[in-house]
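Continuing from the previous page...

OK, I double-checked the sequence for ATP-grasp domain-containing protein against my notes and this is the correct one:
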Amino acid sequence: MNGWLIYTISDSIRNKSYIDWFIDEAKKQFIDLVLLRREDISIGIHHNKPVIYANGEEITADFAVVRTIDPLLNKQLEQMGITVFNKPIISETFNHKAYGYLAVQQLGISVPETYYFPANLTPSSPPLDFPFVAKTAAGKGGDQVVMLDHQKEWEAYCQSTTEAFVVQSPKNIQPGKDLRVFVIGKDIIAAVLRENANDFRANYSLGGKASLYTLNKTEKRTVQKIIDAYDFGLVGIDFMFTNAGELIFNEIEDAVGSRTLSKLSDINILKEYITYIKEKML
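Thanks. Re-ran it with the corrected sequence; updated structure tokens here:
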């Protein structure tokens, strides 16, 4: 069995140790997993069939783990008969915050009061009272999340952004606190609580602290509703907390990292993920 681990060049440099770990775990289970850099490949249609080329040659594999946000690539691979982790429906839906909120709200799960806008099509007056949060629809990691406090900041944000974005009310939501639930297939692997006393964003990369978290029965049921509705590979389902301590959906990370989980536990999530991939391929 052979597979591709697809990263952009910049992400492959930044995540070298994770990639090495991934490839090593695959080798232990007799899977030949190789790194494929997104910039080195071309996808398209040739002689009326979908193809993928690398260095001028047509290539193929049994499966691909796509670790970059590229829904079209996921769809192309699937149409070529290559099993993709995560599936195109996951990449398309959850790498756009508005699509993600619409999908999860349909499951009867609470989401924040949210409005969404395409780039350059915004009202002069926002639909929320200040202050509120603005997030690029495709942003990851918290660095494209800002708090807007007044009309001039809103106007400046609308003029400067070149991407679709969402705005979100912070009312009844605890600032600087969120929960990431790691999921493989239909199984909850672990949950990590992230807290930041100095920022409304809880991201570990922005100076927050993290700890393992035990989901209660109600929280497990909420997570299970999402798991039952989708065919996930490995994802991180992120929630915020209301002032009453209840979970409220935030986003689903398609190409989720596990650095924090590895620091907090001895869970070998890539071993479990490779085992899952192998079972799906047999």
